[in-house]
Design goal:
Elements: E1 5-7, H1 13-21, H2 26-51, E2 56-60, H3 69-74, H4 90-113, E3 120-124, H5 126-135, E4 152-153, E5 171-172, H6 189-201, E6 205-206, H7 209-212
Helix pairs in contact: 1-2, 2-4, 5-6
Pfam family, one: Lipase_GDSL
Keywords: Glycoprotein
Family: Belongs to the 'GDSL' lipolytic enzyme family.
Length: 215
């Protein structure tokens, strides 16, 4: 346990998706009620790992839900105010931002209370990595038109018309490495590589894994 690297998450996306698809209010239900419960479960899991002897634990925040093709398709809107400057859905990203702030606060709380100096808890900023890719795609090898559009899908403005848009009959983009989303929910290998490098070396991990991990 003491020489292993534990990655705890990301956790929360499926919980929030369940309530969002039931049209539950993000402000009245999800933010005040669901987020604290999700973060409490993550906190408990971190504490259990420490009790079992873990020394290096990575706790990721969640990816910006409002930038995923599935949700962009489900919640298409004619109101420009529903979108941020990247074309992502503003209210969903604000929900994830609140979740991530709660996770960061939880990580800091455990750090302060942990009396074992050998324990390192690392927050991984997945949304920060996503923001950089989406706002500066050309800099990182992505196509400007591939930031919000799935590579594997079944049509529509985001190539994610149905709930499960990528299957054996789906069309594929010519070059997946130029896209950030692979399908309606998941990233391409190229996008995941960018995120992983940012967590290993920084700046999307506090502290960067390779600067602290003794595993």
């Amino acid at each position: 346990m003491s020489t292993s690297l534990f990655v705890l998450g990301e956790i929360g996306d499926n919980d929030y998706t369940y309530f969002i698809l039931e049209n539950r209010s993000t402000d009245a239900v999800i933010k005040p009620l669901v987020i604290p419960k999700v973060v409490a479960k993550i906190e408990n899991a971190v504490k259990v790992l420490i009790e079992l002897g873990a020394k290096t634990i990575v706790v990721p925040g969640d990816f910006m839900m409002g930038c995923l093709p599935r949700f962009l398709t489900i919640f298409q809107s004619s109101n420009p105010d529903d979108y941020d400057e990247s074309g992502s859905i503003r209210r969903l990203n604000e929900l994830i931002q609140q979740h991530n702030h709660a996770v960061m606060a939880m990580v800091e709380r455990i750090r302060r209370r942990c009396d074992d100096p050998a324990v390192t808890i690392i927050y991984a900023d997945l949304s920060g990595a996503a923001h950089e890719m989406i706002h500066n795609p050309l800099k990182h090898g992505f196509d400007k038109n591939g930031t919000l559009v799935a590579c594997c899908g079944d049509g529509g403005p985001y190539n994610s018309n149905s709930f499960v848009s990528c299957n054996a009959t789906s069309g594929l983009c010519p070059d997946a490495s130029k896209h950030i989303p692979w399908d309606g929910d998941h990233l391409t290998e190229a996008a995941n590589r960018f995120v992983a490098r940012g967590i290993l070396h920084g700046p999307y991990a506090v502290p960067p894994i390779l600067s602290t991990c003794k595993c």
